[in-house]
Amino acid sequence: MPDARAIFSRDAIAARLAAPPPHGPREPHAVRLAPDVRFTAAAVLVPLVNRPDGVRVLLTQRTAHLNDHPSQVSFPGGRVDAGDADRIATALREAEEEVGLAPSRVTVLGHLPDYDIPSGFRVTPVVGWIEPPLDLATLTLDPFEVAAAFEVPLAELLDPARVHRREFQFNGRHRHYVAIPYEGRYIWGATAGMLLSLARVLDLG
Predict the structure, then answer these.
(1) Which long-range contacts (CB under 8 A, 24 or more apart) does 139-144 make?
(2) 82-105, pLDDT tens digit by residue?
(3) Cβ of 177: how many Cβ atoms within 10 Å?
(4) What pTM, to 2 d.p., does this model score?
(5) Domains delineated in the chain
């Protein structure tokens, strides 16, 4: 892996996000909704926290009773509301609602390509930079949606050696997905897919 100190700086990540998206073979797990499918627009915040020991990604564990993606590890986010000015506004609003992260704490660096989910969501991942202090213990979690908030080192999430590719049968169709195990948690599905998208933008895979 290239030197993390060089590629994980705020300016370096912003420059990569501003460049045209890299082209290459699509991951087998990637979904593309059919042109005639009515999708639900959504956005998530990919929060990068600049810790002294390296950049970390803030993630949430969803509560078990939710109808959409219960108990999964995810980024703060949700569907676009009519009052949102753009996808950035959606991501920042949802992050404040879910974990109490004020928009003023986030420097938006750019966004990744839209990510389609089989359930009919088209998600825009907005990448944000956060400077400490940020104490996870003082975050205000939405008890209905968020069971926990935690951080994972960005370098570990983007290490190709940690990515597991899996497949399964669902409704008679052969489906692929990716997963990234970390300290007893299983980061998979759309969240893992968006992290792979970030790795590709940063020229890591």
Answers:
(1) 139/99, 139/100, 139/101, 140/99, 140/100, 141/60, 141/98, 141/99, 141/100, 142/97, 142/98, 142/99, 143/63, 144/63
(2) 999 999 999 999 999 999 999 999
(3) 19
(4) 0.86
(5) 4-155 (3.90.79.10)
